Amino acid sequence: MNAIRLTDVTLGYDRHPAVHHIDGHFEDGSMTAVIGPNGAGKSTLLKGIMGLLPPLTGAITLDGATCGDIAYLPQQADIDREFPLSVLDVVLLGAWKWTGPFGGATRAMRQQAEEALRAVGLEGFGKRQIAALSAGQRQRMLFARLLLQDCRVILLDEPFTAIDARTTADLLALVNHWHEERRTIIAVLHDFVQVRRNFPQTLLLARETIGWGATAEVLTAENLLAAQNMCEAGDDRAPPCRRSAS
Ligand SMILES: Nc1ncnc2c1ncn2[C@@H]1O[C@H](COP(=O)(O)OP(=O)(O)OP(=O)(O)O)[C@@H](O)[C@H]1O
């Protein structure tokens, strides 16, 4: 079964395409690394799947799911660290599907949030302000929120960038556990060793698809060189795309 199908998808900003004509699918229960040079369109693709950026052309279909069934962890840079919230408040945001945007958290939800904090190694951190967390602790907190969200599809944008080795290992173990639970995982990553060791599938992007399939077949020197060349030749302010669907 396909969890997510992309049919000739082009995504961009102000009608300027950032990533073109992506065609393929993420199978239900698959675990895919999305890799590629800076500016290749990796974050853009995740935003498209999440429904934050409607395709300029083509279609993204979620098999039997809605955007509410997808959990999304944006890049660290996109998160406001100074907002006056406690760690428990942030984790409880993961329960909004059940509470509604203005609903209060029940005692059971608070307990679940405490358990999630324990699972990511942040027991006793609930009352702390998020501004007082280190980068690694903040990422652990956001993984606790993902645990509470309990979604079938999980999108992670550079989840381990600027995170220490111990935290990365702990959070990777959690991601592998989600994979064992047959959730669909799509993660933007830059560490190829990590990708080879943990991610069975890889999508290599360079404004368009260079390779998509088994990691060993996609993550080759030849493909990486092609991706680099493609991105260097790319134009940030490309005109609206006129290529027809193939
Ligand atoms: N909000 C935006 N408005 C306009 N252009 C954008 C916006 N976000 C990204 N872009 C452009 O879209 C292209 C793809 O960016 P994107 O962030 O998806 O790349 P990426 O592969 O995730 O890169 P990185 O590895 O550096 O995070 C880039 O040319 C970028 O400048």
Describe the structure.
With 246 residues, the protein is an alpha/beta fold. The longest helix has 16 residues, at 165-180. The protein has a domain at 1-65 and 192-236: P-loop containing nucleotide triphosphate hydrolases (Rossmann fold), CATH 3.40.50. The mean pLDDT is 89. The protein has nine helices and nine strands. Helix content is 35%, strand content 24%. The strands form two sheets. Strands 5-6-7-3-8-9 form a six-stranded mixed sheet, with helices on both faces. A hairpin with a 2-residue loop joins β1 (2-13) and β2. It has helices spanning 42-50, 87-92, 96-99, 107-119, 135-149, 165-180, 192-198, 215-218, 221-233, and strands at residues 2-13, 16-27, 31-35, 57-62, 70-73, 153-157, 184-188, 201-205, 209-214. The protein starts with a strand and ends in a 13-residue tail after the last helix. α4 (107-119) crosses α5.
Give a quick set of tags describing it:
246 residues, alpha/beta, Rossmann fold, 6-stranded mixed sheet, 9 helices, 35% helix, binds adenosine-5'-triphosphate
Q: Segments where pLDDT lies below 50 for 5+ residues?
A: none
**Ions, cofactors and other bound molecules:** adenosine-5'-triphosphate
The profile of the biggest β sheet is: 6 strands, mixed
CATH class of one domain: Alpha Beta
The total of beta strands comes to 9
Q: What is the residue-averaged pLDDT?
A: 89
The H-level CATH homologous superfamily of one domain, spelled out, is P-loop containing nucleotide triphosphate hydrolases
Structural class, from helix and strand content? alpha/beta
Helix content: 25-40%
CATH architecture of one domain: 3-Layer(aba) Sandwich
Taken in chain order, the helices and strands follow as EEEHEEHHHHEHEHEEHH
Strand order of the largest sheet: 5-6-7-3-8-9
Net shape? globular
Q: How widely separated are the two ends?
A: 24 Å
Task: Count every helix, treating DSSP H or I runs of 4 or more residues as helices.
Answer: 9
At the fold tier of CATH, the topology name of one domain is Rossmann fold
Rg is: 18 Å
Strand % is 15-25%
